[in-house]
Amino acid sequence: MKEKDVSRRSFLKALSKGTAAVVATSVIPSIGKVSANTMENGKLAILGGKAVAPNKVFPQWPYFDEKMVQRVAGVIRSGKWNRIDNLHNGTVATFEKRYAELLGVKGCVATGSGTQSLHTAVEAMGFGPGDEIITTPYTDPGTVAAILSARALPVLVDIDKESFQLDPDEVERKINKNTKAIIAVHMMGQACNMERIMAIGNKYNLKIIEDACQAHLSEYQGKKLGTIGDIGCFSFQTSKNICCGEGGGIISNNEKLLDDCYTVQNHGTNRQGRTVTIGTKYRMNEFEAAILLEQLTRAKDQFEIRNKNAAYLTEKLKNFPGLVPQKLYPGTTKGSFYLYTMAYHKEYFNDASRDVVLKAIAAEGINLSGYIKNGLHREPWTDNIINRRVYQTMYSEQRLKDFKDQLTLPNCDWVCDNMVMLWANGPLLGTKNDMDDIINAIMKVHENRDQLKLITSI
User: Fold this and answer.
1) CA–CA separation, 331 vs 166, rounded Å?
2) Buried (b) or exposed (e) across 92-110, using 16+ Cβ within 10 A?
3) Listing from the earlier edge strand, what are the strands of the sheet with 219-220?
4) By C-alpha distance, which of 185, 184, 252, 190 is closest to 220?
5) 32: number of CA atoms within 13 Å, CB side?
6) Are 163 and 188 contacting, i.e. CB atoms less than 8 angstroms apart?
């Protein structure tokens, strides 16, 4: 106990001398509860020392129980497996009502995936060839796929290095006469700068689509994410905080827009049974909705646990410049914490590469990793579309050249190379001791960073 108290006092003393002193020395004393054995050993587990948290097991994700099994069994026994067989009272229709109530909006349309939700929204809002939609390169390919599926042009802009979100200044620079919308992606379940993005949308008369696929129940300036723009899209894929394997949802307070979304995802057939437009077949099935209904019974409680544990980790990492938690914009009160993410600064780990440090932390029993390897601006779809006849027909040669030339996005490249993340769904449902193990593993590696040079050949 004395060693722990001394460590904390030393840390506070170092902070009192100012950030400059800390940076100059690159010495960040331990702020966790590193055990006496670990302190005495001082040898990294990857080099033969004793691990901080050997055989670490976090809570299982996805979570399931017998109640969920029985809900699905009930659908099987009903013989009504398609939402059309049980249009108004089935599990899909019930889930849509309850999810809309949960988020405080007028309605929800369920789909087969988050990507399908985004594509449905783009189509229902009337965007297509010749139109341009601005979004981030630091996202799941589904964001861009939704734009490409409508044969509109995705315009990628650089991101903020601290929040990992769309940079509003870069958004505004890329607007032209063909820009019709912004897809604002709430990465890791935290809000992007919606105050600025909504102001830009109002200034240029642009529609705002919120890609809230990772942001279930997240809050910003008193509103749930997905409810701020014109329309919000969610994913219920297995890794998400509310999940059913695959699945998606669209929410809005615009009832006409919701009806249009229903029609598009129902192969162009409206609620009255008339086929009125071009559409896909993106309907959610009754099994998926049954799982989601059971997930909703505990979603709020799990959301609060994740936020509590994330706040604890962030407090423990406060003023530690080696791993800096994702910046949250003012007004961000709670996030889904789909991932808990940090920016890695190698100068505080003796310039060791991120991969070496992650190997060392993993050997201590805590698995952290990078996230997106390449921003979407570095993927081959950009060459694919400019060589397609439809894009060559609908966009000028000069526009396609400019599109390609503008794919230099250094901040996104830096984030791809330096982001460190904890898969949050299971781990952030753990205990305070679990959170201490995460911090202790990180701090042990930092305290013994002089040993990292020995890991390069492993």
Assistant:
1) 17
2) bbbbbebbbebbebebbbb
3) 223-224, 219-220, 332-334
4) 190
5) 26
6) no
- Report the alpha-carbon distance of residue 96 to residue 107 in Å, rounded: 7
183, 134 in Cβ contact below 8 A?
Answer: yes
Six token digits for residue 450:
């002089």
The Cα-based distances of 156 to 56, 215, 457 in angstroms read 39, 21, 38
Rounded CA gap, 269 and 279, in Å? 8
Instruction: Give this prediction's pTM.
Output: 0.90
Question: 379-416: b or e for each residue (b if 16 or more CB lie within 10 Å)?
Answer: eeebeebbeeeebeebbeeebbeebeeeeebebbbebb
CATH code 3.90.1150.10 region(s) in the chain: 2-60+298-372+416-454
CB 299 within 8 A of CB 241: yes
State residue 10 phi and psi, 5-degree precision.
-65, -40
Chain CA centroid to CA 115, Å: 14
Tell me how many helices (H) and strands (E) the chain has.
17, 13
Domain boundaries for CATH 3.40.640.10 within the chain: 66-296
CA-to-CA separations, 437 to 29, 304, 385, in angstroms, rounded: 16, 20, 47
Tokens representing 182?
Answer: 């912004």
Cα–Cα distance, 417 to 355 (Å, whole number): 10
H or E segment and range at residue 422 = strand 419-423
Task: Name the CATH superfamily housing domain 2-60+298-372+416-454.
Answer: Aspartate Aminotransferase, domain 1 (3.90.1150.10)
Question: Would residue 434 be called left, alpha or beta, if left means φ above 0 and alpha means ψ between -120 and 50 degrees?
Answer: alpha
CA distances (Å), origin 123, targets 170, 232, 269? 25, 14, 14
In order along its 458 residues, the chain shows pLDDT tens digits of 334 433 433 443 443 333 333 333 333 444 444 444 444 458 999 999 999 999 999 999 998 899 999 999 999 999 999 998 888 889 999 999 999 999 999 999 999 999 999 999 999 999 999 999 999 999 999 999 999 999 999 999 999 999 999 999 999 999 999 999 999 999 999 999 999 999 999 999 999 999 999 999 999 999 999 999 999 999 999 999 999 999 999 999 999 999 999 999 999 999 999 999 999 999 999 999 999 999 999 999 999 999 999 999 999 999 999 999 999 999 999 999 999 999 999 999 999 999 999 999 999 999 999 999 999 999 999 999 999 999 999 999 999 999 999 999 999 999 999 999 999 889 999 999 999 999 999 999 999 999 999 986 55
Q: What class, spelled out in words, does domain 66-296 have in CATH?
A: alpha beta
Region of residue 23 (phi > 0: left; psi between -120 and 50: alpha; otherwise: beta): alpha
